[in-house]
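Figure caption, in words: inputs first, then the predicted bound structure.
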Amino acid sequence: MSEFVVVHHDNGVAVITVQNPPVNALSPGVPEGIFSALSAAERDTSVRALVIIGGGKTFIAGADIKELEAAARDPENAPDLHPLLLRVEDSFKPVVMAIHGTALGGGLELAMAGHYRVASPDALLGAPEANLGIIPGAEGTQRLPRLVGVPVAIDLCVSGRLVKASEALALGLIDRLIEGDLLKGACDFARSVADQMISKTRDRNGRLGEADENQKAFAAGREQASKIRPHQTAPLFAIDAIEAATALPFYEGCKREREIAKQCLASPQAQAMIHLFFAERGVAKVPGLAKDAQPYLIKKVGIIGAGTMGGGIAMACVNAGIPVLLKDTSQDAIDRGLATVRKNYERSVQRGRTPQVVMDQRMSMIHTQLDYAGFDEVDLIIEAAFESMEVKRQLFGDIEKIAKPDCVLATNTSTLDIDAIASVTSRPEMVVGLHFFSPANVMRLVEIVRGIYIGDRTLATALAIAKTLKKIGVVVGNCRGFVGNRMMFPYMREAQFLVEEGAFPEQVDRALTNFGMAMGIFAVDDLGGIDLLYRVRQESRHLDKPGVRKPVVHDRLYETGRWGQKRSAGWYKYDDKMKASLDLVVHELVEKTSAELGIKRREITDEEIVERCIYVMVNEGAKILEEGYASRAADIDVIYTTGYGFPAWRGGPMWYADTIGLKKIYDRISEFEKRFGSDLWAPAPLLKQLAESGSTFAAFDSKVMSIAK
Ligand code: 3HC
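Bound structure (3-hydroxybutanoyl-coenzyme A present):
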């Protein structure tokens, strides 16, 4: 019998338990194990029905993505689940799939080949393949519409969203919810259907719909894909495959699906997104962090500052079930902060995402106050006050007198020196940077800033709290701007230079969004607040090297009061719905500035915009890597795709650089160095070295990963 499958019998039911921890992925050997267990059960005359269930915390979470990663380079040899699916569906004894945890991708596809599906109420089901740049390639696009209908199948494949068991029941994806003991319930259910006629999913054509209606659904699906996954090919391919399900007999449809799936798997998009899947999980493996470092348990959090960041962090905490004390210095600030939190929840209630009772419960978990009462009991204090070293050092001096000894002290600074903040306390080993991104209740990224004094338990706590808040915590070093903003500075600088040299903000932004950035850099600046970036720059003016070119237009905008969306005017002008449009006043300002600087404006191509903006980031990323402020190029990719709107389908800036070829990037940067000077464009030595040796950032990472293991 297979090492991945255990079989036992329960009063006429053969129970096949899949055991491939941690998520029971369909790794080599697992499909074969299920296949032979099924065949044996069919032969066994004492068996009337079968149950397939996952061992441990979940059903089957999908194909083995490691296997898919390898198959992306050799799609002809992609894993083929067809023999197993056929074996399940053709079983002459009913096969009941018992689902808990998650049934995802290939796991759901296997489940759909069963004759019945039952699930625990907390189970989640879905086809998240689009997140990996691929389509459900194990007949999922053929069986899913047969169970749930064409529009729902399209929605699930395009969005990749997971549905709870109750919704799955309503959709027809499962047949019954089992409260309590899933295995017992599944066996009872299996016995109840043991002697009934078996219905195969592939024969259930009743929900495949009519041509007219389907055409509308395909068009709506393509529209949805262009909105929620712009530039991505996989969701469109999934719709093509579902279209095949409606137009072709089952086996022909499966054949078509396999062709499309192979094409998808071999695409650069799939390779980039699979890279990110592992990169997002790799960030938890922190080089130099003791494996046995025990995180402190965080049961209550104190937050200082009820502004946008503080309020968002408070929401993230209470959403994860952690009560919060939210302090600010004036009742007015508290009222404003709490009103924003309430408005955010109300919007979510109106959209049907959060029930009113849940909102009420979460609001009641945020206790606002003007003093530090109760801060001596919290396990973590997050300072989210004004971005000023003076303010932060003062605050840390205050809170360390109040906080209990094992309370972790975090600052949400986005640019300031953590060590300088930590050193005002008598316990700098307890201090960490937790750089959340706005809106903090939504954005997945948290940069965890590891200063020189930090203790392992503090770092482990930061990683653990990020996970609890359902965020991705990436450990970064303590340099100016950490990783994300440090790369953002030259990116923003080049964007502005381009404007001073001849482009306009909307052209730069359009070139960047066409490249795939979620937002143009100037739109981002308007959203964040031009005054904010101005203040950040003021804090670091003393670091500017004399004689080196600096962008100027931003200061002009600040000086004329165009502070971005908050003033309905920045790089763009805004209507009352915050819809941006170009502003000729800005054009005039830009042209005037170019003239003042003695720059003769010229035609700028979109190609130059993308190269200068993106390559400058890559170059800075390479410097960050060699200076050790990020452990892996993949960490930088995760930071940029989860926090800065870099397109996941390009894999992040460093992965993208690998796909272009580091030699080409290096040559281009060297040209820019000649044109614009070494202070701005000197190639990073690591980039030079990798380019000259024909290597990649991925190869650089594989060495780091072998150390981190
Ligand atoms: N294949 C290989 N490894 C997987 C995996 C998979 N499908 N799913 C998870 N893992 C690994 C992770 O890499 C991680 O490994 P590590 O500990 O060495 O870093 C470990 O399992 C635990 O994963 P998480 O940290 O993500 O665990 P969580 O408990 O937070 O989440 C989960 C569990 C929700 C199942 C999440 O892992 C997940 O979403 N997995 C991917 C699901 C998926 O995309 N399935 C579809 C695959 S594609 C497919 O099936 C194609 C088909 O159409 C043929």
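Residues 632 and 703 are 9 Å apart (CA to CA).
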